[in-house]
């Protein structure tokens, strides 16, 4: 793996393939991830310098968010379970936005992203040094979900992650869900047993 270390790249663009781009404070070049690359972007954002890296990031997660090897590493932020929160705010065009990372309630990074993302496209974990590593997570079991508005089943803004569970029983007395929706639920979660 190629490591470009300690760069404070300004202007232009840098492409991340299978290497690691380490940008110290002051970096403002735009960073593009190659769709099939497995590399990463390492930045030095902290609570008092949330825009130490001021460039824009594109291509993260690959085509259709299918590349789960790429990462963004915050080397100045220690990962503490339950204290690290990621949220994404989309621009009005839904073709760009900002990924906010907070630790203990304080914002420690604000990363400008180019592309169609939601908060579900970002997950934080500890890297090998105990710092925050951001990845585009896999949907468990490669699944997907579909809405059935004609039957009153809508699932807007559902965030998939490692611990997301969707369940509904055909005989469930939940308001606004009737017997006709049961077959769809049974197709989604065939292992649920009715009581």
Q: What does this entry look like structurally?
A:
With 195 residues, the protein is mostly beta strands. The chain has 2 domains: 3-138, no CATH class; 140-195, no CATH class. It contains 1 helix and 12 strands, in the order ββββββββββββα. β8 (84-90) and β9 (96-103) form a beta hairpin.
Please outline the major beta sheet: 6 strands, mixed
What Rg do the Cα atoms give? 20 Å
Helical percentage: under 10%
**Helical stretch count?**
1
**Which shape, going by the Cα principal axes?**
globular
Classify the oligomer: single chain
Strand order of the largest sheet: 1-3-5-7-12-11
Low-confidence stretches: 1-8, 143-174, 177-195
Number of DSSP strand runs: 12
Q: Tell me the strand percentage band.
A: 25-35%
Task: Describe the structure concisely.
With 195 residues, the chain is mainly beta.
Structure keywords:
195 residues; mainly beta; 2 domains; six-stranded mixed sheet; disordered N terminus
């Amino acid at each position: 793996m190629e490591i470009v270390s300690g760069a404070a790249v300004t202007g232009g663009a840098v492409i991340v393939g299978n290497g690691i781009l380490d940008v110290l404070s002051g970096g403002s070049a735009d960073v593009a991830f190659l769709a099939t690359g497995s590399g990463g972007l390492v930045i030095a954002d902290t609570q008092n310098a949330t825009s130490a890296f001021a460039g824009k990031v594109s291509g993260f997660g690959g085509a259709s968010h299918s590349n789960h090897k790429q990462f963004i590493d915050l080397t100045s932020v220690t990962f503490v379970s339950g204290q690290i929160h990621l949220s994404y705010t989309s621009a009005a065009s839904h073709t760009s936005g900002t990924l906010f990372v907070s630790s203990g309630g304080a914002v420690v990074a604000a990363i400008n992203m180019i592309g169609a993302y939601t908060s579900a496209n970002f997950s934080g974990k500890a890297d090998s040094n105990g710092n925050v590593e951001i990845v585009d997570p896999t949907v468990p079991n490669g699944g997907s979900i579909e809405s059935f508005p004609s039957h009153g089943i809508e699932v807007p803004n559902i965030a998939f992650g490692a611990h997301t569970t969707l369940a509904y029983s055909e005989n469930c007395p939940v308001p606004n869900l009737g017997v006709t929706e049961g077959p769809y639920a049974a197709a989604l979660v065939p292992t649920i047993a009715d009581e």
